[in-house]
Amino acid sequence: SQQIQFADDMQEFTKFPTKTGRRSLSRSISQSSTDSYSSAASYTDSSDDEVSPREKQQTNSKGSSNFCVKNIKQAEFGRREIEIAEQDMSALISLRKRAQGEKPLAGAKIIGCTHITAQTAVLIETLCALGAQCRWSACNIYSTQNEVAAALAEAGVAVFAWKGESEDDFWWCIDRCVNIDGWQANMILDDGGDLTHWVYKKYPNIFKKIRGIVEESVTGVHRLYQLSKAGKLCVPAMNVNDSVTKQKFDNLYCCRESILDGLKRTTDVMFGGKQVVVCGYGEVGKGCCAALKALGAIVYVTEIDPICALQACMDGFRVVKLSEVIRQVDVVITCTGNKNVVTREHLDRMKNSCIVCNMGHSNTEIDVTSLRTPELTWERVRSQVDHVIWPDGKRVVLLAEGRLLNLSCSTVPTFVLSITATTQALALIELYNAPEGRYKQDVYLLPKKMDEYVASLHLPSFDAHLTELTDDQAKYLGLNKNGPFKPNYY
């Protein structure tokens, strides 16, 4: 896919006869800093020479070359983006300030595999400020913000990631994170489970030193529970995805805002009156449906779980089977965490110019592989947008090749990521400092008290004032005045 992207992107520059002409254009654009995240306006990818980052020798200002990013010279832009993100991540910054003195992560050697964006950079730098050493790679080949990766590399984080990696690059970056002489990780922070999977496959001995895994996605948590069931999980793991502060916030409110952003930036689609089918009515599906409904779209939901289906009915959505509406809908969005939800048979029956995209973590929900056949023509329209054309001329608009739409094609709201990142940081601190035997080789939820602590750190941004229980009220409810207020299953 990388080849196609460059071939098409280069056409924009053929108007400039000389190499210097093209260079100067790229320079003037990058100085106005439009070379940042937005997929449609990201010219730097193409104007940079086509040498793979793996072939380049780059060093940061301190002379270190212990990283691999697209272009270290973009570090200054990345630093500005990180500073903007910090403005809306006050809770994480306040955690950083509170704990900076005692360094609860001193001696922690964390390998991480997440989206590399301005927001996760704030998390990574917080972990470093709390005493950890970090090595990082990307959990998605499209979601890295190159200039942010450069800023992290400049700050001394060993980061291996760039936007538009090939499948081979993806695993190479993860490998470079893990496999290094004289440095042995003792914590894993994962998003999607790929890093954990790679360590199991290639370097199982590392688990002797690992104190715990923190995982933040439905997909990765699912993989951990499978390992646990099979008796193969040899270290404790913290399931951050199902902690309330992740599920009810990141999955719901983040997707409610970013689904529209990703679709608008890639297709300029108008939603009023459009027929949309959302596959899956979990927290992500609920967020997507709420946003689409608010703009006047006609929304259908597909669901396997009777409870979620009933919730969808109560919220005013028609619950259908995908095959019942596939011929008439204008947009298909998957958010199930499953595989082969949209099959080739569905794609064959779609109407002309139907938009197909995925909001789940993995690119398995839409059967994209089935579209790579000789009778179908692929046309790259712009970065992350492909037209797949059938022999009769019908087109389907496929976004980000079926990968995560919001992080591949737009950005996600900073504030909500502060909530998730604070939860991750606390989970790492908890596992790293836990006394021997507190956590067995199993998957755990973050203690409810910590969930409530994360939420309380975020309330000052809204000037929100909590009511306090009187002794009498607390006794009546059978609660401690300071919480936890909810049972663990909430």
TrEMBL record:
This is Adenosylhomocysteinase. Binds 1 NAD(+) per subunit. Residues 251-412 form the S-adenosyl-L-homocysteine hydrolase NAD binding domain. Residues 26-45 have a biased composition (Low complexity). Its cofactor is NAD(+). GO terms for cellular component: cytosol. Gene3D superfamilies: Adenosylhomocysteinase-like, NAD(P)-binding Rossmann-like Domain. It comes from Alectura lathami (Australian brush turkey). The keyword ATP-binding does not apply.
